[in-house]
Description:
There is one protein chain. 27% of the residues lie in helices and 24% in strands. The model is unreliable at 373-383 (pLDDT under 50). The protein has helices spanning 2-18, 58-63, 92-99, 119-126, 137-143, 145-153, 183-194, 203-209, 260-267, 283-292, 304-312, 372-375; strands at 29-35, 42-49, 73-80, 104-109, 130-133, 157-164, 169-171, 198-202, 226-230, 251-255, 272-275, 297-300, 318-323, 333-334, 349-357, 360-367. The chain is built from 12 helices and 16 strands. By secondary structure, it is of the alpha/beta class. The strands form 3 sheets. The chain has a 9-stranded mixed beta sheet with strand order 11-10-9-8-12-6-13-16-15. Bound molecules: NADP nicotinamide-adenine-dinucleotide phosphate. NADP nicotinamide-adenine-dinucleotide phosphate binds next to strand 6, strand 7, strand 8, helix 8 and helix 11.
Amino acid sequence: xxxxxxxxxxxxxxxxxxxxxxxxxxxxxxxxxxxxxxxxxxxxxxxxxxxxxxxxxxxxxxxxxxxxxxxxxxxxxxxxxxxxxxxxxxxxxxxxxxxxxxxxxxxxxxxxxxxxxxxxxxxxxxxxxxxxxxxxxxxxxxxxxxxxxxxxxxxxxxxxxxxxxxxxxxxxxxxxxxxxxxxxxxxxxxxxxxxxxxxxxxxxxxxxxxxxxxxxxxxxxxxxxxxxxxxxxxxxxxxxxxxxxxxxxxxxxxxxxxxxxxxxxxxxxxxxxxxxxxxxxxxxxxxxxxxxxxxxxxxxxxxxxxxxxxxxxxxxxxxxxxxxxxxxxxxxxxxxxxxxxxxxxxxxxxxxxxxxxxxxxxxxxxxxxxxxxxxxxxxxxxx
Length: 383
Ligand SMILES: NC(=O)c1ccc[n+]([C@@H]2O[C@H](COP(=O)([O-])OP(=O)(O)OC[C@H]3O[C@@H](n4cnc5c(N)ncnc54)[C@H](OP(=O)(O)O)[C@@H]3O)[C@@H](O)[C@H]2O)c1
């Protein structure tokens, strides 16, 4: 029905605003609409979003706000199939059934999490709730891309974020930090960080840039993603800025070493250490590991060796390419060590969107290999 589509449209619009802000649970928007028995007169009576930190869920938040009237019909619209498994609290399906007044449930897409995956829908139908799903499924699936990849392919969606000079360099020379983009573009980067669950960098970027990797813009700090650093020998200096507030912002180092003396220097700063044995220490296994801790969307912020590895192994879904408005000239550091021409190759990706930030710009590129993992489903599972 048209009205169903309209309310789902509102829910999806709102969903985009909370992506990356409900870790470790997927973001969901639920709307409860009250109508007369013929469905000719209707209005929104409740809006529920997945809470910050994942609980309570959107459906529970929406149902909790309703003043139920006997002569009315109630439809719950949701962006994802309501969960049917009992966690720390009652499942959303139980909440819907036990409320006793939700007559219809309309949602965009089934939840691929194996604890749900159609079971939520079935329990609702078995309890005489009218269920419809699939409305605006494509739009919803796009927003849930990272979540679906996490549940189906055991890896997060990977977004490479680079800042390039006009002549295509990421810094003026090796082991130097260069300011490439303007204030407006930097603020947009902060928003981008707040929309992902994890941010990954190589050990040398941490060393050279002494970066903090959080969201500093007003109101966004609490949405700072989990920091992930790759450092085989665990030889970074624990006094670097990134290790200063790890209680506030979860920070994980991947390493090969089992040297407990080295561990202690980081554990005392609340840094998590994830050791992978040398034979299995590779990006695929690191991504698999990140997926297992709940990371659905991962922003990869460099530097050159990291970008090169992700690109060479085709382990990315999107590139956010910021372009600053100045030349670096000779000695500049290429983003991809095979040469900057890679980033001009249309064979590897297509341009989805271009945005302007004053004299700077942002190109959003989709990998043309995007569906390769769906075709080779076991790529990640076999590791
Ligand atoms: N403009 C930009 O967008 C931007 C963004 C970030 C950084 N940068 C610049 O980039 C430069 C740093 O780049 P870089 O190439 O020297 O270093 P990097 O990529 O930051 O770090 C390299 C390290 O990351 C780890 N690593 C890389 N590939 C890996 C893989 N496939 N598997 C596991 N670990 C891997 C290794 O650490 P271990 O050897 O410790 O294991 C490697 O030594 C700096 O100048 C920085 O300012 C620019």
